[in-house]
Amino acid sequence: MTDSSVVLITGGGSGMGAAAARQLLDLGHRVTVTGRSADRLLRFAEELGRPEGLLTLPGDASDHEAVQSAVEATLKTFGRLDTVVANAGFATHDTIADGDPAGWREMVLTNVLGPALLIRAALPALKETGGRVVLVGSVAGIVHTPGNLYGATKWAVTGLAENTRRMVTGDGVGVTLIAPGRVETPFWDGLGSLPEGRLLTADQIAEAMVWAIRQPAGVDVNSVVVRPVGQPV
Questions:
Q1: CB 140, CB 170: distance < 8 Å
Q2: Mean pLDDT, the chain, as a whole number?
Q3: Which residues contact 172 (CB under 8 A, 6 or more apart)?
Q4: Residue 129 is among the residues annotated as catalytic for this protein
Q5: Span 155-188, pLDDT tens digits
Q6: pTM of the predicted model as reported, rounded to 2 decimal places
Q7: CATH of the domain at 163
């Protein structure tokens, strides 16, 4: 991948997505970042000095029209699309035994439908560039957590990565699943505190994402699991 390639990241106004955007911009890539909060995206752009290679677009990652519009705006602005990163997602931090179902629908749509919509919208452009799909899953999508619906959504992302790879590899498009363990990001805000033990930083996960994105043409890294040392499961 050339340093001037174009990457679209959903949920990129904070956390791992923002960290990946910063690193890619520093390396000379052009980056589109989407997110639900226009204010957060504005602050992010201002923190970086509003670089020419950054396009910020408010929008819901689980809304088909918003995702399609983001892809179209990226192509109009930068002329191509080389990688999409389905990073948007969140957890309700409850179980199906005692949780509040009111929050589940939005979580499932964001975490599962969102990546599928991004793939559908971006695939024609990615076929033209021999690009890559990066799906941000989770260790929770590899190791079961009792009664955890968030984990079930990430199991769906794990499956989506492989069935997408089988669908597009003949078209020259790569697919990478990045499955982080515990990371210090706004993901934990709903719990009021960080979990005990060592946590990775958003920048450390972003480094893994950028490494996968910058693999040479013809190299398809399919699954990257990154845990902090000391996380047993």
A1: no
A2: 94
A3: 127, 130
A4: no
A5: 999 999 999 999 999 999 999 999 999 887 666 5
A6: 0.94
A7: 3.40.50.720
